[in-house]
TrEMBL record:
InterPro entries: Glyas_Bleomycin-R_OHBP_Dase, Glyoxalase-like_dom. It comes from the Bacteria. Signal peptide: none annotated. Gene3D superfamilies: 2,3-Dihydroxybiphenyl 1,2-Dioxygenase, domain 1. This is Glycosyltransferase. GO terms for molecular function: transferase activity. It holds the Pfam family Glyoxalase_3.
Length: 212
């Protein structure tokens, strides 16, 4: 179990403008992601060190975005002004989470212009919608060289998260100590009785720390 990425829902001026602001703040160029046909969304990627990345995502005008929990989560966060939507943990086996949550993981995919396809299984978006402090979980499948963090070499590191919530609640959700996937990322837990979710993310860049 390890932290994989953080997701940022587009603000009111759309995916391109939102991505440009974040990329400029970090002093890097973003990478074009693609369409998630099962979810009715599309994304842009900012690769980071340590097999991490930032996903900036927006909903498409497509029925899938109303039906798929991931599309629903993106649409709701963007409608609220955009911002950090959640964080994601990569695991080798989703079976324990399927058994505990009483439902099956769902497949995800997006295709590259050259025909290669990024594929994965994910679960936990409904939990994220109900309680945005908790991560969702995924299992990458297919060619590991297609992982979004490898889309471009990067020197920017995700160093810390500030999350409104409690480590105890997230530990309960994951079924093991929350420190397990966050061994290389510091977390400040604040406002355990307030509105939960990611408040900010801090990155180490060539120009020093940047908090978004």
């Amino acid at each position: 179990m390890r932290m994989d990425h953080v997701s940022y829902a587009s603000e009111s001026d759309g995916l391109a403008a939102t991505t440009e602001r974040i990329a400029t703040a970090l002093g890097v160029d973003a990478v074009r992601g693609g369409i998630h046909p099962r979810f009715g969304t599309r994304n842009m990627i900012i690769p980071l060190t340590d097999h991490h990345y930032v996903e900036i995502v927006e909903c498409l005008n497509h029925p899938a975005s109303d039906k798929a929990p991931f599309g629903q989560a993106v649409k709701a966060r963007s409608a609220a002004g955009g911002g950090w939507m959640g964080w994601c943990v990569a695991v080798d086996d989703l079976t324990p989470f399927e058994e505990r949550l009483g439902r099956s993981a769902v497949p995800g995919n997006r295709k590259f212009p050259d025909g290669q396809e990024l594929v994965w299984q994910q679960i936990g978006i409904k939990g994220l919608i109900a309680d945005p402090q908790v991560p969702y979980m995924l299992k990458w499948e297919g060619d590991p060289s297609l992982h979004p963090s490898l889309a471009r070499e990067s020197t920017v590191r995700l160093s810390s998260l500030t999350i409104a919530g409690s480590a105890e609640r997230v530990t309960e959700w994951l079924g093991e100590p929350v420190e397990a996937p966050l061994d290389d990322v510091a977390v400040e837990w604040i406002a355990p009785r307030g509105t939960p979710g990611i408040m900010s993310v801090t990155f180490e860049t060539a120009h020093g720390p940047v908090t978004i």
